[in-house]
Structures are given as C-alpha cells and as structure tokens.
Amino acid sequence: PKPQNAITVAVSSRALFDLVEERRIYEEHGVEKYVEYQQNNENVILKPGPAFYFVKALEHVNARLLELYPDDEERFDIVLMTNNHAQVGVRLINSINHYGLTIERFCMTGGESPIGYLTAYLTNLYLSADSEKVQEAIEAGIASATMFTANKDVAYSDTQLRVAFDGDAVIFSDESEQIVKEQGLDRFFEHEQLNENKPLAQGPLKDFLEDLGKLQKKFYAKNERLNCPIRTYLVTARSAASSGARVLKTLRSWGLEIDEALFLAGAPKGPILVKIRPHIFFDDQMFHIKGAQKLGTIAAHVPYGVAQKYRKS
Length: 313
Fold this sequence. Notes:
Layout: E1 7-11, H1 13-16, H2 20-29, H3 31-40, H4 52-68, E2 76-82, H5 89-98, E3 105-108, H6 115-120, E4 123-128, H7 131-139, E5 144-148, E6 161-165, H8 175-183, H9 185-194, H10 206-221, E7 230-236, H11 240-254, E8 260-263, H12 270-276, E9 280-283, H13 286-294, E10 299-301, H14 306-312
Parallel strand pairs: 1-2, 1-4, 2-3, 4-5, 6-7, 6-9, 7-8, 9-10
Antiparallel strand pairs: 5-10
Helix pairs in contact: 2-3, 8-9, 9-11, 12-13
C-alpha cells in the first residue's frame, strides 16, 4: 500500500529476529567483526525475535483484508527499520523470505539512529529492542515500545491478532498516575470519581488502538464481527468500581471500542495475560513487563509518563 494509506509498523532487526549472539560479537569485537560474521553466515536463517509473531499476525490480518477489500490500501505495512549496515541486509532478506514475511521496505542506517526516518515513513508504531531509540521516538511523538522476549515459549493464535494494552500512560495520559505516585491511592480514587465525566487525555498508544478499531470496523461491515481477526484488550491495575467508569467513558467519548476490559484492582497482570495470550502487551511499568515476561507473555515497555521518573530515581 502507499504510505499515506497504510498503517505503518516499523520494526528493528533485533525485535524481529533473535540477534543476541550477533549483538555480543558487536559489543565485544566491534562493527567490522560483526559485519564479517553476518556476511559469513548470511545463509544461516535467524530465529524469531520478540516481535516476530506480532508481525506474522499483522500479515494474517492483511491477507483477510485483501480477500474482503482487494482494492483498499488501508492495511498494515511492515518496515524493517534498523541501524544495521547494508552489508548485513542479505542475511535479513534471506531470513524474511524463509519465513514468508512480506516486508518490502528496508531502512538500514549504517550505525546512525533511524529515528529521523520514522516521520518520513509516516510511522504509526515503532518497535525496537533498543530502549534509548524508543525513548527518542516517544519524545518525537511517535508511538513506540521496547520489546522484551518472553521467558517461556507459548503458542500464539495464528488466526487472530491479539493486542493487550495497559491504560494509564499507554492508551491514556499519565494524569491519574501522577496523583497515585504523588498523593496516594485514596486521593486517586477521589479524583477519578470527581472527574468521572471528564475524558482523560490521550496517551502514546491511543492512535494505534484507533487504527486497530478502524480495521475491525471493516470486518464488521462485511458481517465478520464474530470472525474478526483482530481482538483488543485493556488490562489495567485500576479497580472497576472505584476508578473504572472514567476509563470506559473516555473510550466512549473517543468513539473507540475495546473488546475486553479487565480491571485487576492491583492484582498481578501475568496470570491474566497467560489466559489471553496476546501477540504483544504494552505497559509503561517494568514491574508489569517483568511479571508478564516471567509467565510467557511478549511484553513491550512504553517509556512514557511519571512512572519513568520514579523508575530512574
């Protein structure tokens, strides 16, 4: 699809493939040895990385959209966005072709940061294994997250893209989280009830949730609601009775639907995510990322909002 019509997802090579050993060579022996190693092994297929099954699921959605809307270009376009050198490209191409992925656009910046290209590519979502690059992208106003590999292998749906989002500082702004951190839970509950009818400001992943919703409606229009290949989940530490109404009313005010909303009232998210088995789970707090990882969920850290300040301190 043409970039202006597509939902562009930019993925780094270390997010798409397992490049742990190659990264070790780069860090211990430098860029020349790294490039030499990659060229010598360009026919050795790379193993899947943390974003691999998410990308496969995006491509399944594309295939379904093409069946229903063969002339419509509003679908996912995957771009490999990496600071690798062009000499490494052959191994990446061989691995992409081996797995039957449709990734036609590459941006290989030869050691320079790729962030400046994200805007030029009209990027809707950027996934990387490099937290500094992700932070840079977030500061540039681009929806971004750092990918983390799950500690256990689990089976993912190959017929339905499943995306799970935290609420505050992910879909929504960190306005309410600031009150929790600075004034405590009691003041937070009071604030949320007083402002129940005032929509929360949007967070960094709101637009991506909206993109998913637009595609879902294309399936609904063809009477495919029950067979929709996209399912979205809100997995929040909020309590439903004390602070859930504002969240649901905010989504309603934006005209957005979420398929499942799970209010956990501070309980761990990991066991719920095991049940959902999302291809990706977005959260702004590393505590939840690590809990998800431990139980086999591929998690993506969104470095946005007040929680980052507390993590650094």
